Amino acid sequence: MDRIQPAIGPHDAAEELLPWYATGQLDATERAQVESHLYSCAACREQLTAERRLIGEFQTTSPQVESGWARLKARIDPPRPVQSFKFPIFADLWGILSRPAVATLAAAQLALIVVGGGALYSLTRPDYHVLGAAPVPASANAIVMFAPNAREADVQGALNAASASIVGGPTVAGAYLVHLDPAKRNAGLGKLQGDQAVQLAQPIDGTAP
Amino acid sequence: MNRSGIIRRPRTEAAKSPASDERELLARVVAGDLRAFERLYRLYQPRLSRFLTTLLRRPQLIEEVLDDTMMVVWQSADRFRGSSKLSTWIFAIAYRKAHKARLKWPDPIEEPEQDTRLSEDPAPDDELHHQKLHDSLMRAMDQLSADHRAVVELTYFHGLGYREIAEIVDCPVDTVKTRMFHARRRLKQAIGGRLSDWF
Question: Would you say the ipTM is above 0.90?
Answer without folding.
Answer: no
